[in-house]
Fold each of these.
Amino acid sequence: MSDDVDRAPVAPIVWTFCGTSALHLTDGQYSLMIDPFFSRVSIARAATRKIAPDLNLIERGLHEAGIGKVDAVFVSHAHHDHVMDAPLTAWKYECSLYGSPSTVNVGVGSPLHADSMHAIAPGAVVPVGTFSVRVLAAKHGHPNLAPGEIKAAFPTRPVWGLRYRDGGAFSFVVEHNSATTLIHPGANYIAGALDGTTVDTLFLGIAGSWARCKTFRRRLWRSVVEAAAPRVLIPVHWDDFGAPLSRPLVLRRWSRGSFESSARFLEQECGVAGITLHWPRPFTATMMSNGNP
Ligand SMILES: [Zn+2]
């Protein structure tokens, strides 16, 4: 490492949450996005129609979030609410797309050049300037309406929503000289997957599974939150991703009860564990906190 890098001041990470598990992380010099999703196609529509990303909505969302630069786009799994807008986002910023082989097959149906699409697997470490992204195996939460792989390249025209099969799921550990961050979009766990990984901040997906049963929730808490031991926990993937981003985020109508129970659980457990629970303000650039008031 050169003296210049040694002497370089440590720039904090600034993050922006854009609904679902769409996140932008930057230190002002380099930046990355996880699961960008601005087209906001609902499950009902995806289950019954042919769907396609909407470049106007993507550009509007990125503009509203103040995202001027992205150096790499990562996709946690290939359901439409995670992957659909990722290839066009990478294309817009002329950067690389990283995801499972299913994600790469979705990318083939976009204008993104094949050289910019990279299949990743658990254990991979991807350097993005001052960041380093480690890929962890993860499990999709329940329910999973489109399990399996995307085995063929997507066409450039709209496709049936259920063709967006999950293709396997990842979590991402983002290392940076100011902080270590775990992005865990799926509300599920693999026992032992986080052994040896402790982080400062955890972005935790709380869709679906959290309400499944108290035992499951307790195991998930132990395997993910206790294992990663964050100082700050930021819940994501709690909003109705079929609702347009032109209005404030809302909860899914049928999941309000489970959301309230999840929120109570998180408040209680974070309080006991001394973890700062931070509900994110969408489309608001926020400095990564170390958990101190
Ligand atoms: Zn999914």
Amino acid sequence: MSAILNPPYVPIPGIFLLLFEVMIEFNKSEWANAEFSQEYIENSDIYIVERRRLLEILRSFYNHFINKKPNIRILDLGCGDGIITHELLKVNNSISATLIDGSEDMLNKARKRLTGFNHTHFIKASFQEIIDKNLVQGNFDFIVSSLAIHHITMDEKEALFRSIYSHLDTDGYFLNIDVVLAPTEALERWYLLLWKEWIDERKTLLKNRR
Ligand SMILES: C[S@@+](CC[C@H](N)C(=O)[O-])C[C@H]1O[C@@H](n2cnc3c(N)ncnc32)[C@H](O)[C@@H]1O
């Protein structure tokens, strides 16, 4: 997963600088490809180490810090098929949820997944559009994002975090579940290897179960 992070470890300094400044438009990213996003949905339990545990932590955080408030409004950034919002709606089905993603395919999957929940609102927008066009309206008690923000550059992250902060209620929270770069290149290479080993192991395990 770290291979698709911002590229500060590209070895040639000139290339590093060049890449670092280039913003990847959502439409030119792999996520704009319906097959790529479908592949992610089908295999996310394999690709994401400890997915179940992460969802448990999300629910616990929500219950501890947010669920006591009345009329809760949440915003899910890079929602994918809506798994994060769904976990929270299972805890409290009166939540009013706004889900944003750059991919219409993903949003359709989220709409399908959340059929039956009445207070859901879907917006097709890239993070870059959120930053540039001020598309998000109102304030939220909880802004959450899972495995999505690492797709944008450092400058974009800074602008996005500013925007997120401006849309948080006074005692609101922002939770970002995401991958981070290791402190050294050697560690980063090992993390990637470890992750590949995990994927291979899980795939073999699942194959043997069939
Ligand atoms: C790895 S998936 C995560 C989906 C979901 N949050 C989850 O935890 O399963 C990344 C999601 O971010 C979206 N995404 C990636 N880059 C984006 C961007 N620049 N703007 C908006 N959405 C983006 C993709 O379309 C995809 O749905």
